[in-house]
Every structure is written in structure tokens, then in C-alpha cells.
Amino acid sequence: MGLGQPLTQLPGIGPKKALDFEKLGVRLQGDLLALWPRRHEDRTVITPLSSVQSGGEYTIVGSVGSIDYDPRRQVLKVTVTDGLFALYATFFHARWLARQLQPGTRILLQGRVEYWGRRLAMTHPRHEVLSPGEEPARGLIPIYPLAGDLKQRVVQQVMSLAIPYLAPQAFEPLPHTLREQEDLLERPQAIMHLHWPPNKDAFEKARRRLVFDEFLKVSLAVMRMQQWDIGIPGVKQNPDGPISQKFLDLLPFQLTPGQSRAWASIREDLCTERPMTRLLQGDVGSGKTVVAILAMLAALDAQHQAAFMAPTELLAEQQWRVLNTFTEPLGVQVGLLTGQDAGQAARVRDDIALGRLSLVVGTQALLSPSVQFQKLGLVVIDEQHRFGVRQRAHLAQKGYFPDLLVMTATPIPRTLALTLYGDLDLSQIDGMPPGRLPITTIHLSYADRRTAYESVRQAVRRGEQAYVVCPLVNENEELDVTAATVLADGMRRIPGWRVGLVHGQLPSKEKTAVMEAYRTHQIDVLVATTIVEVGVDVPNATVMVIEEADRFGLAQLHQLRGRVGRGSKPATCYLLADPKTEDAEQRMEAMVRWSDGLKLAEQDLKIRGPGEILGLRQHGLAGFELADPVADLLLMEHVRDIARQIVDADPRLEQPEHQTLKKWVDEAIEDALPTQVLH
């Protein structure tokens, strides 16, 4: 056995099982170490049936007596007995289990016991069918993720064989002094006890050590990336120049206090020659774009170029129109570079290279080797979670070290933002522009969906506009959900309604034409997929209906809701859903209760965990596998302080005791960045 050995060298693993393990991210034996259990089942105590009482959680073992299976409802009712006492278990969707059981089969059950009439019973308990003569494992039993045809018992057998041999070979990145100072287990022992803990205390100590490692690696990595900007010759902008001043004079409104505070911190950075790397966080509709325009105009006043990068063509075109509206009175031309026709793209690239265009909006096409700026001074990246470290590094590859402003409307609790985006300084826009009214959010079951569409009808009568958002473009036989194309066809039959349809499968020119028709009120109701999630600004839109709302995450629902209420009129968002899970029900309740994006982000973290929401893999680092930034918040803050102390004392991790730490962190960064940037 060895960390770098193929999985097929382990007993009982042939090519087929190896392929199933590969679906779990396990290719080599060493990968088994990080195939963490989803949970542990406590089998330290197996209770005799004679001692079982209603209202308690128990693990029991007995033999199957009677079996009653209803194939129409797929409900299985089983009597489990020890010869003297009996317990009744009910399983749902259990056709496969019915085939495994016969009278006399020994089975282990875990769950809550309640009275059904006068009988003690378990409803859909966790279970394990035992082989003849087999005794159930005792203690804290790991339950692993599965893929393909893998069975839980097979994975457990492989892990029980491999982990004791592989864990001692695990790399120990932390210096002895740090482990001693923090009272941490050695990493090999922590891995062993995370998989097969002798008791709960050992499990908690093991988890603390491994969560500590995850927080420390991410914190050190982002701090190391921040160091790369130290000593790099940057460019100085001119936030007091004539274009910037004219822009402020012509603004039809005053900056909000939140915008003013954010602009003050950005302005301070722009006045120095050290390249700015700043994250601008603000809720949907808080006015981030105006602050970004101020930064870009400061670059133009310093005779530099500025680039605004958006994640999709549709958003790039939307932002291009917004910027044109603001800059046209200033005599500033804005270029657009997306996947448009080759001739136009070539002309825009020439204008950028020759300096004829000072301000350009585009997608990742701006990162293309064929795009050469004459003197790039500032880059604004919209929706940071869709880009990340790798794309940012491509700008450095071009030889530019411009000021960088990344914007996100995906709210992240401050401590978490500092940990994940520690290579970026943080500015936050609090509050909303004056006159912006709160959006009323209503959750309706499908039995009451007429209420939502009556609201759409009333809005159209008042000369206002509405969005209807669907989860799918076309009908799908496997999924019983509302399709945008079908709904749009039906709504077009309603007299007096001008209905448009936009989704990601439309050609770029068609998408642009539909959005322009909606923006200019040639369309009353826009049926769309989540392509309208960010960046679309139509102040006359006052009603949104989200079909199958329980299929969307909280962050996405909040972004969608932010498309209405962007003018001075009251707005309403209807969530149509019959939630089928507790998580989905919680999301609907949270949307109705809160309009504050930061509060919703905290709820989303609690409901779904951090990985999906924060886009950690897009950020460039592997992310958290064991850590929970909500439950482990205090530990995260503590570890971030330790990381700062280490970097302050040894900025490049060159001291002998930090060599293993440096190797460990640099490997994480190498996974995130292009090789050319590192070398």
C-alpha cells in the first residue's frame, strides 16, 4: 500500500469498482484519506428490545418476522423480533429492500421509537441487513458518500483496511511548535480518528485539527497572493480630474452614505502607486455601478484605459448600455467586446491597442491574447464568484498590473469574505438609494397561482411591466416543471399582452433584441430563465413571478427579486412553489421574511453549507470539505489571526520551521493559478 499506488492494488477492487470510486474523486490510494464520512452512526450501545421505550432513539438488532409489502404505494411493513419482544418498522419507496428480506433475516435498525396504537414502531429507520452469523460493528460507524454500484458496506470494508496503513503516511504540514501551541493532534492521527473514531471526544479533536488545516491553508494562500502585489510598480489615477468632476456634477442624485464611504476607500487606493486589489460588496440595487464608473473615470483622467469585465454577453451588453448613458454627456466613448461578429471585434481590438478607446466593456474575450491595451490602468470585474483568481492572473500574464476592483452582489458575511478574499481589501455599500421601496414577497402554492398572474394583469393595465421566470427552457419528460417556451406560448394568446421570451439558448443578437424591446417597453411581460438574474435594469418592471421557486437557491432568488422595484413604484415578487423538502420550505420562509441580502446569505449558509454558495472552486482554491463557516466561525477567526501572525513574522515562509507549511500552501496556489504566473 502507498499514497501514490493505484486503487486496483487494494484487495477486492477491480476496474469496475475503481471507476465507481473515481466518481467520488478517488483515483489513487492516497485519495481515500480525504473521502470523508458524511456522518457517523452511533452504535456504541445496542439496546435489547425488552428495554426499548416510546420517545427514545435506539439501535436494535432482531430477526425479521412478518413482511407486508404494498407494491402500489411501495410501502414495506416489517415485524422485527428477538423471540420474546417485537417492534414494527415501516419503510417507504422500499421495493429494493423488500427483495432483500425474508423471515429469519437478521437486521439492524436505528431510529426513533413511537407508539402506533399499542405497538412500538420505527418509521423509515436507518438499517443494515446482516449476513448469516454476522455481528454488527460497534462504536461510531462512518457512513460514506456512494457512487455507481458501490455499497456502503463495501466502502466501509475498503476504508477499514486502507486507512490504518495509509494515514501514517499522510503529510504533516504544521510546525511542531504550532501544533503544541494550539493543542492539535498530529495530522495522521486526526485522519485516522476522523474516519474511525474510538469515541466522540476523539472525533471532535480530529475534526478540529482538520478544520484548522482547511482554514489555515485558505488564509495563508490568499495572504500569499496578496503579497505578490507588494513592490509591483502600479499606476496612479486621478479621481479629481475634469471628467470625474463633470460626472459628479451631472449626476441627477447624490451618492448615498454607503456609496460615499465605499468611494472614499477606493479613491484612497487610486491615489497611490501600489496596485489596488479591492472587493466591492453591495446588495442588489445598492448602486455599485456608479462607484465603479467613478473609479474608471479616475483612470481616464490619468490618461489610462479602463476595462469592465462581465460574466456573460447579455450582462456585458446591459452594462455597456448603462455606461453609455452615464458617459455620453461626458464625451467618452465606450467600446463593447464580446463574441460578436469578427469584423466588429477586430475594429474594437485595434481601437484598444491604438488607444483610441479608453473605456471598454466585455466578457472574458478581454483576456484573449489578441487583445492588447495601450495603457491599461484599471479593471472592474462584475460578479467575482463567476471569475476568480485564475482569470485575474491572466491580466498579470499580459504584463499589466492595473488597479483591480471586483464587484459582487452575492452577500458574504464579513469574516468569511476576509478569509476567502483575503487577497482583496473589502469595501461594502450599506443601504439603498433614496426612494427605493422595499419589495413585497409572497409565497403561493400552485393552487393559488391565479393570484400572481392577476397581479401581472393589473400591472400591464397600469402601463407597468412584469417578469415571469422559469427553471427550464423546454419541456422535459423526466422533470415535471414549467418550461419558459411553453409558458410564453400560452401567455401570447392573452389579448393585449405583448410577451417576450429570452433564455441562454437564443442567439446573441436575438437575446439583445428581446432585452432592448423589453427595456423600451415594446414588451409588457418577459418570460425568461435565470439569464435575467443579474445586471438587467428596467425601472418600469414592478411584478415578478418565479415558477417552481423551490428549485432555486436563496442567493439566486434574491438576485432575481432584485430585477423589480428598481424605480419609484411599489413592487411585488411572487414565489410559486409547493416545497417538497424542509430545506425548500425554509428558503421560501426566508425570502418572505427578509429582504436584506446579508441576512439571506447567512440563512443560505445554514441551509445549504458553504461550497455551492461561495463558488470556492471558481475562486481558485479547493474550498472547505469539513469546515462549516457558520458553526466554526470562532475557529475561523482564530485561525485567520494565526495566519496573519505567521505572515507578519515570516512573509515568504522562508524560515526552516515553515518549509513544510510553504510547500503545502504553494501546492494549493499552484492548483489555482496558471503556471506562467507562478514562474
Care to give the gist of this entry?
The chain contains 24 helices and 21 strands. The protein has 679 residues and is α/β, with parallel strands linked by helices.
What can you see in these coordinates?
The chain is of the alpha/beta class and 679 residues long. Among the domains are: 45-137, OB fold (Dihydrolipoamide Acetyltransferase, E2P), CATH 2.40.50.140; 242-429, P-loop containing nucleotide triphosphate hydrolases (Rossmann fold, 3-Layer(aba) Sandwich), CATH 3.40.50; 439-594, Rossmann fold. Helices cover 38% and strands 19% of the residues. It has 24 helices and 21 strands. The strands form 4 sheets. A 7-stranded parallel β-sheet has the order 11-12-10-13-14-9-15, with helices on both faces. A 6-stranded parallel β-sheet has the order 16-21-20-17-19-18, sandwiched between helices. A 5-stranded mixed β-barrel has the order 2-3-4-6-5.
Summarize the helices and strands and which ones pair or pack.
Layout: H1 15-22, E1 39-43, E2 57-70, E3 75-81, E4 86-92, H2 95-100, E5 106-116, E6 119-123, E7 126-129, E8 139-143, H3 152-166, H4 176-181, H5 187-195, H6 200-227, H7 242-250, H8 257-270, E9 277-282, H9 288-301, E10 305-309, H10 313-327, E11 334-337, H11 342-353, E12 359-362, E13 376-382, H12 389-397, E14 403-408, H13 414-420, E15 425-429, E16 439-444, H14 449-461, E17 465-469, H15 484-491, E18 499-502, H16 508-519, E19 525-528, E20 541-546, H17 554-561, E21 571-576, H18 582-593, H19 597-608, H20 610-614, H21 616-619, H22 633-649, H23 659-672, H24 675-678
Parallel strand pairs: 4-6, 9-14, 9-15, 10-12, 10-13, 11-12, 13-14, 16-21, 17-19, 17-20, 18-19, 20-21
Antiparallel strand pairs: 1-8, 2-3, 2-5, 3-4, 5-6, 5-7
Helix pairs in contact: 5-6, 6-22, 6-23, 7-9, 8-9, 18-19
